[in-house]
Q: What sequence folds into this?
């Protein structure tokens, strides 16, 4: 039987993109989730970046269970065991982190949950591998660039990488990333911009999400 961990990883690879955002507004968060889903997103990361993250996540989980049973809903920006436990209790499907915290890895591994740590150096990647990271987030990717992936991928043969930060909805940019050896890209503010959130530009978000999915298919 394929574990949930593998199913979620396969869904990220299939989608080729992991959209992520945080917004204080519960209503806004729900609308963005619905828009992403309508545009074809089936794996999504809400980020733990503000005081409303936990209550908003619980609401998103409720909406997901009622309206989008085939959507995997994960939580990002998990830096501590306390955060990991709080969101696991709230029903997250997977955990994304900006750092490698072995204590968080241990919690996720114990329950067979997908844990995607953020790494910036070969040493961090090595530590993440020691703690069974199947997919590693290269962060901040706008600082490291596709050349970093090209340079280190042979050192870590078979490891799956996903850059987050600086990935654009642009065929040339996406092709450069996929050519460097990534298997998916994280899409934050370039997709779900401050304008989209503050002005409720959900039609624009819908169009851009469909475009991003299409460009990623062409880039792989």
A:
């Amino acid at each position: 039987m394929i574990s949930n961990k593998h199913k979620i990883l396969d869904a990220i690879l299939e989608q080729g993109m992991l959209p992520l955002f945080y917004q204080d507004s519960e209503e806004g968060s729900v609308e963005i989730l619905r828009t992403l889903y309508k545009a074809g997103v089936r794996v999504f990361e809400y980020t733990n970046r503000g005081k409303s993250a936990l209550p908003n996540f619980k609401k998103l989980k409720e909406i997901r269970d009622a309206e989008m049973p085939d959507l995997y809903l994960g939580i990002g920006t998990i830096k501590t065991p306390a955060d990991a436990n709080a969101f696991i209790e709230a029903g997250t499907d997977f955990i994304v982190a900006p750092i490698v915290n072995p204590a968080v890895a241990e919690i996720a591994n114990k329950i067979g949950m997908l844990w995607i740590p953020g790494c910036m150096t070969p040493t961090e990647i090595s530590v993440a591998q020691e703690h069974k990271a199947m997919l590693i987030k290269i962060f901040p990717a706008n600082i490291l660039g596709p050349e970093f992936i090209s340079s280190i991928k042979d050192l870590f043969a078979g490891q799956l990488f996903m850059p987050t930060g600086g990935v654009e909805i642009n065929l040339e940019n996406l092709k450069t990333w996929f050519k460097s050896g990534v298997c998916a890209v994280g899409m934050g503010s370039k997709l779900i911009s401050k304008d989209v959130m503050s002005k409720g530009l959900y039609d624009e978000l819908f169009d851009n999400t469909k475009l991003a999915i299409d460009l990623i298919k062409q880039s792989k």
